[in-house]
Amino acid sequence: AEAEDGGPQPEKHCGHGRGGMGEEVKRKEDQRFITGRGNYVDDIKKPDMLHCEIVRSPHAHARIENIDKSRALDVDGVVAVLTADDLREYDLATMPTLMADTQDVLVNDKVKFQSQEVAAVIATDRYTAKDGAQKVVVDYDVLEPVVDAEKSLEDDAPLIRDDIEGQEDNHCLDWETGDEEATAEAFENADVTVKEQMLYQRLHPAPIETCGAVGDYDPGKDKLTVHMTSQAPHIHRTLFAQVSGIPEHKIRIVSPDVGGGFGNKVPIYPGYVVAAAASYVLEQPVKWVEERSENIQSTGFARDYDMTGELAATDDGEILAVRTDVLADHGAYNAVAQPSKFPAGFFNIFTGSYDIDTAYGSLTAAYTNTAPGGVAYRCSFRVTEAVYLIERMVKVLADELGMDPVEIRRKNFIQPEQFPYESPTGWNYDSGDYEGALDKALEMADYDHYREEQQRRIDEDADTLLGIGISSFTEVVGAGPGKTCDIAGVEMFDSAEIRVHPTGNATVRVGVQTQGQGHETTFAQIVAEELGMDVEDITVEHGDTDTDPYGLGTYGSRSTPVAGAAAAVASRKVREKAKAIAANELEAAKEDITWDRESGEFHVAGAPDRSISITEIAAGAYMNHPSSEEPGLEAVNYYDPPEMTYPFGSYIVVVEVDRETGEVEFEKFVAVDDCGNRINPMIIEGQIHGGLAQGIGTAMLEHVTFDDNGNVTGGDFMNYLLPTSMEIPNFETGHTVTPSPHHPIGAKGVGESPTVGSPPAIVNAVVDAMSHAGITHVEMPMTPDTVWEKLDEAGLAT
Ligand code: MCN
Ligand code: CUN
Question: What is the ipTM, given to two decimal places?
Answer without folding.
Answer: 0.99
